[in-house]
Structures are given as structure tokens and as C-alpha cells.
């Protein structure tokens, strides 16, 4: 078992408290001192974003190759386009509804083990990515560089996709497939909670 210095132990114990303290302001970037950091934490500390982005990785893993890699690439690329739309002030109706629906629909696709063709899956993921990106772009703090912020939220999104992919590898066993489908159901419920204003 590795040994840690007292300073390391203190830092490890403080990390959860710092994350909890940052959560209240991270969705808008308040209290975060760089564009990259604000962009990075924005998707990670917003549950409406988390469930959809993990779902993309899960669904890609469930569909198998090449979806396992294509979907998590399509999402941040298209999300960056939506982010640019938000930064320049281009209107997009029902952004919050689109974000909530992304959790509901992607969760249900996983829960019901829907095996869509790769182009259909990419279109579904791309449409939802526009909404997520637009939300990131419109919430860009004025004091921060849009470039650093954009790189931050793409990196944060990629991390969430990788978490979904990692859990998606459970589909190699029947028990794992059931667990992943159950996770899809949970994601759909979280999305529904946001959709109906319960979260």
C-alpha cells in the first residue's frame, strides 16, 4: 500500500470539499480564474450535461466499433459549433429542453438496447451536441478567453465520454449488458427530472 505524506493526505481529504464548494458556481464559471478551467468544469459539474455525455460514451460502447469512437468524436466537434453559435449570440430555441431531452432519449436508447446504424446514431448525437454547445457558449464568462473556454469544455466533455466508454465495456458479459441498460434507465430518469423541472 503506498504511503502518503501528511500534506498529500490533507490535499486528498480536501479535494471533495473543494469540488462541492466549486459546484455552486461552476456552471457559470463564477469563482474560477481561467477560461480553460471554467470551460472544463462546466460540463463536469452540471448534472444535466454529465448524464448526456456519459450516455454518449455508453451508447457508443454498447453499439461497438466503430461507434465506440465515432460518437465521442462527433459530439465535441458539433458541440464546438453550437458553442460558437452561443458565443456570437445566435438564438437557438428550447436549449434547456434539448439538453434535458438528450438525457431522456440517449438513456432510453441504451435501456432498450437500440442498435441504430452509425449514421443515425451520429445524427442523434450531433443534434443534441448543438444544444449542449450553445449552452456552454452563452454562459461564457465575459472576462475569459473564448478559446481557452472552448478547449476546456471540449476536454471536459471528452473525459465524460471516456467514463461512459469505460463503463460500456461491461457489455462484454450478459450481467454487464444488464447493468449498462439499467444505467441507461437511470440516465433517462435524470433527464426526465430536468425536463419536468424536478432537478
Automatic annotation (TrEMBL):
Species this protein is from: [Roseibacterium] beibuensis
Source superkingdom: Bacteria
Secretion signal, residue range per the UniProt entry: 1-26
Official protein name in the record: HupE/UreJ family protein
The organism's taxonomic lineage, starting at the top: Bacteria, Pseudomonadati, Pseudomonadota, Alphaproteobacteria, Rhodobacterales
Residue spans crossing the bilayer: 44-62, 69-88, 94-113, 118-135, 147-171, 178-198
Keywords per UniProt: Membrane, Signal, Transmembrane, Transmembrane helix
Amino acid at each position: 500500500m503506498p504511503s502518503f505524506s501528511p500534506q498529500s493526505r490533507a490535499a486528498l481529504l480536501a479535494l471533495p470539499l473543494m469540488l462541492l464548494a466549486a459546484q455552486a458556481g461552476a456552471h457559470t464559471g463564477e469563482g474560477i480564474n481561467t477560461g480553460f478551467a471554467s470551460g472544463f468544469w462546466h460540463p463536469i459539474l452540471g448534472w444535466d450535461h454529465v448524464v448526456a455525455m456519459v450516455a454518449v460514451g455508453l451508447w457508443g460502447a454498447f453499439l461497438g466499433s466503430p461507434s465506440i469512437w465515432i460518437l465521442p468524436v462527433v459530439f465535441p466537434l458539433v458541440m464546438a459549433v453550437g458553442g460558437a453559435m452561443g458565443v456570437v449570440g445566435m438564438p437557438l430555441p428550447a436549449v434547456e429542453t434539448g439538453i434535458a431531452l438528450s438525457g431522456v432519449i440517449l438513456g432510453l436508447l441504451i435501456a432498450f438496447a437500440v442498435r441504430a446504424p452509425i449514421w443515425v446514431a451520429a445524427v442523434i448525437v450531433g443534434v443534441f451536441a448543438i444544444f449542449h454547445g450553445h449552452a456552454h457558449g452563452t454562459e461564457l464568462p465575459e472576462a475569459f478567453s473564448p478559446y481557452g473556454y472552448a478547449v476546456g469544455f471540449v476536454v471536459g466533455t471528452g473525459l465524460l465520454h471516456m467514463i461512459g466508454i469505460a463503463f460500456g465495456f461491461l457489455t462484454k458479459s450478459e450481467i454487464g449488458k444488464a447493468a449498462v441498460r439499467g444505467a441507461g434507465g437511470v440516465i433517462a430518469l435524470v433527464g426526465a427530472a430536468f425536463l419536468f423541472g424536478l432537478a
